[in-house]
Design a protein that fits this description.
The protein is α+β, with helices and mostly antiparallel strands. The chain has helices at about 1-5, 40-45, 60-70, 75-85, 85-95, 110-115, 210-225, 260, 265-275, 310-315, 345-355; strands spanning about 15, 30, 50, 70-75, 105, 125-130, 140, 155-160, 165-175, 180, 185-190, 195-200, 230-240, 245-250, 290-295, 300-305, 320, 325-330, 335-340, 360. Strands 9, 10, 11, 12, 13, 14, 15, 17 and 19 form a nine-stranded antiparallel β-sheet that branches. A hairpin with a 4-residue loop joins strand 11 and strand 12.
Length: about 375
């Protein structure tokens, strides 16, 4: 999707990927290698003018080397290092007076048990792995002493459990000229039982004051982290109406896919404008919209087969994006659908109709 947007700027895109048949092959040059390997990242980037990332766990040391070589690298590697470590994230939020729940960094399962025994933490509370956690992976809610036996490994963040009323997200964009823009807030709805985003709604059902606060926090974050390009920020709103940062990601993000159809400038267009230091585009939206994730059906693993495509393509206000993944697995993200409508009730009906019709199964 980023390569498609780049074609409008006359920019050629290369992609470092472990697989030659990566879905990006349709509109970019694939260089086979490991984005988590320092040498592979350094070699790949040495042949590029501008380097960016499309997932949060890219090798930071290789990106730092490229920056030292004079390559343009966004997001800046120091910010990416903070984002890759939820402990450093929490400390950053605290230092910059950004809304984060009470937390404590704990090194081992023994430290977690001692924190409970000492009374510093009482059930229920949240335990997050400091690294490699996303889409609910590496996140546990400890409800009782028996749950402590499930804690393994090293590097944890204990965090107060937020009494969630609503989940929101925004996409912020910044260029090197100090220009910052923020898309309208999206309302997130999780997929039941899979800790994944099922769909999102725009505009979010929030007050003008909360919309303004969400945008303000996102603008402060992207500025304080000194990020050019995109920063996706996910929030919890608790039942008292307080706002808390949940996760951040310095790249085009699942919570911004609907912008491809719902406005003049998509998140991919904006990310390019940010990393190439061009004027930012418009963030205004044409009207109510939704993004529905297409997930692999439970019980299906193997070669991808899509059912219901003809019926969905005939629907009004619906645009399908399949990612070209050759293998499906239960709950694997296989694509998304943008849905446009003139009002919220019509939007909700179309979401349900698409969900019931379009299925990704195995052959």
């Amino acid at each position: 999707m980023l390569a498609s947007a780049a074609s409008y700027f006359g920019v050629k895109v290369s992609c470092l990927s472990p697989k030659a048949d990566d879905p990006a092959w349709v509109n970019s040059t694939i260089v086979v290698g490991n984005p988590k390997d320092t040498e592979d990242v350094t070699h790949f980037g040495s042949n590029c003018d501008v380097v960016t990332v499309e997932f949060d766990d890219a090798d930071v040391e290789g990106l730092r080397r490229l920056k030292e070589m004079g390559k343009i690298v966004h997001p800046n590697p120091d910010a990416l290092a903070i984002i890759q470590d939820k402990g450093l994230q929490s400390e950053f939020y605290q230092a910059h007076e950004l809304p984060t729940p009470r937390f404590e960094l704990l090194d081992s399962p023994e430290d977690v048990r001692k924190a409970v025994a000492d009374g510093r933490w009482s059930f229920p509370f949240v335990l997050k792995t400091r690294r490699a956690g996303y889409d609910g992976k590496g996140v546990s809610v400890l409800q009782c002493h028996e749950d402590l036996n499930k804690v393994t490994g090293e590097g944890w963040v204990a965090q107060t459990k937020v009494d969630i009323h609503q989940e929101l997200a925004v996409i912020a964009i910044r260029n090197g000229r100090g220009e910052v823009k923020v898309y309208p807030a999206t309302e997130l709805v999780a997929f039941d039982g899979a800790y994944l985003l099922d769909h999102l709604l725009v505009p979010a059902d929030v007050s003008p004051s909360l919309e303004k606060k969400v945008a303000s926090v996102a603008e402060q974050l992207i500025t304080d982290l000194d990020i050019q390009g995109l920063l996706a920020v996910e929030f919890f709103v608790d039942k008292a109406g307080e706002l808390w940062i949940n996760e951040v990601s310095p790249r085009p993000h699942n919570t911004g896919h609907q912008t491809i159809e719902s406005g003049l400038s998509s998140q991919y267009d904006q990310h390019l404008r940010g990393i190439l230091n061009l004027p930012l585009g418009e963030v205004e939206q044409h009207g109510p919209s939704a993004m529905l994730n297409i997930l692999g059906e439970p019980g299906h693993s193997g070669p991808t087969k899509v059912e219901g495509m003809d019926e969905v393509l005939a629907m009004k206000g619906v645009k399908v994006h399949l990612y070209g993944k050759m293998e499906t697995k239960p709950y694997r993200k296989m694509g998304h659908v943008t849905i446009l409508a003139e009002d919220r009730p019509t939007l909700m009906k179309r979401i349900q109709l698409v969900r019931n019709t379009l299925k990704v199964v195995s052959e």
